[in-house]
């Protein structure tokens, strides 16, 4: 069974640009969550989608947005990039329970 | 003060030693407690999950939760060099709350 996949794996952008990251969950998983991981703040919850609806949202500015498609694939978008947005962005999918979230390898975003 | 506190280490132990990891938390509403292992350049991998107070054992791993003290632990017996990784504790309020709160992670090195 294929795991969670994220594309691209690495991304370099400049301040002010926008970026879109993609996540394909494990087949059959309908919940997709996004997290930001930085050395200073650790892993922080961004948002969670289930059946194309955002069910939970973390404490991030509106520049961070996401969506989920009918096939459960999800994208997150960050607009007007700031240096502090440099991080590893992780996607996790779940079949039925938050205690069984399976993470992808992440997308490493560097903002210059 | 962060909701979940975890000593980032690093922690270095000889092969075969017992590794002891712990987290403290401030929010008494947390009921579900998880431990993840993260290798370098990989996404977190779920190791253990416990509900409320008590112990849970899985092979060389034992997770303990003491809700009265707001303290959770993970013990790794007979540690191996392959256990070298960053260990993250995570917790959530409700069964259907997909917003996980993570500790900062403890980096563990097991010396051969």
Describe this structure in words.
The complex is a heterodimer of chains A (112) and B (112). Chain A has strands at residues 5-7, 10-13, 19-24, 31-38, 42-50, 53-57, 64-68, 74-78, 87-94, 102-103, 107-111. Chain A is built from no helices and eleven strands. Chain A has 112 residues and is an all-beta fold. In chain A, a hairpin with a 2-residue loop joins strand 5 (42-50) and strand 6 (53-57). The radius of gyration of chain A is 13 Å and the shape is globular. By secondary structure, chain B is mainly beta. Chain B is built from no helices and eleven strands. The mean pLDDT of chain B is 92. Chain A binds chain B through residues 4, 31, 33, 35, 42-45, 48, 50, 55-56, 58, 90, 92, 94, 97-106, and chain B through 32, 34, 36, 41-46, 49, 51, 88, 90, 92, 95-105.
Stretches of chain A where pLDDT is under 50 for at least 5 consecutive residues are none
Q: What is the 3D form of chain B?
A: globular
The arrangement of helices and strands of chain B along the chain is EEEEEEEEEEE
How many angstroms does the end-to-end distance of chain B come to? 37 Å
The percent of residues in helical segments of chain A reads: under 10%
**Greatest chain-chain contact:** A-B, 26 and 25 residues
The largest sheet of chain B, given as strand count, sense and whether it forms a barrel, is: 6 strands, mixed
Terminal CA distance of chain A = 37 Å
How much is the average pLDDT of chain B?
Answer: 92
């Amino acid at each position: 069974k294929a795991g969670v996949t994220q594309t691209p794996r690495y991304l370099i952008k400049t301040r002010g640009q926008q970026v879109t990251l993609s996540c394909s969950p494990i087949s059959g998983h309908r919940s997709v969550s996004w997290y930001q991981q930085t050395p200073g703040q650790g892993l922080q919850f961004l948002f969670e989608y289930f059946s194309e609806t955002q069910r939970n949202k973390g404490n991030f500015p509106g520049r961070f947005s996401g969506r989920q498609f009918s096939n459960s694939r999800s994208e997150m978008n960050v607009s007007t990039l700031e240096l502090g947005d440099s991080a590893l962005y992780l996607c996790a999918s779940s079949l039925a329970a938050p205690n069984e979230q399976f993470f992808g390898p992440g997308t490493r975003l560097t903002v210059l | 003060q962060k909701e979940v506190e975890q000593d980032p280490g690093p922690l270095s132990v000889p092969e075969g030693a017992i590794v002891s990891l712990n987290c403290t938390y401030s929010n008494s509403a947390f009921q579900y407690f998880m431990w993840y292992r993260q290798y370098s350049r990989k996404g977190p991998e779920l190791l253990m999950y416990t509900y409320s107070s008590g112990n849970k054992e899985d092979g060389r791993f034992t997770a303990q939760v003491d809700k009265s003290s707001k303290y959770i632990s993970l013990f790794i017996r007979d540690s191996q060099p392959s256990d070298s990784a960053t260990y993250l504790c995570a917790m959530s309020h409700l069964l259907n709350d997909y917003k996980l709160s993570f500790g900062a992670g403890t980096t563990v090195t097991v010396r051969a």
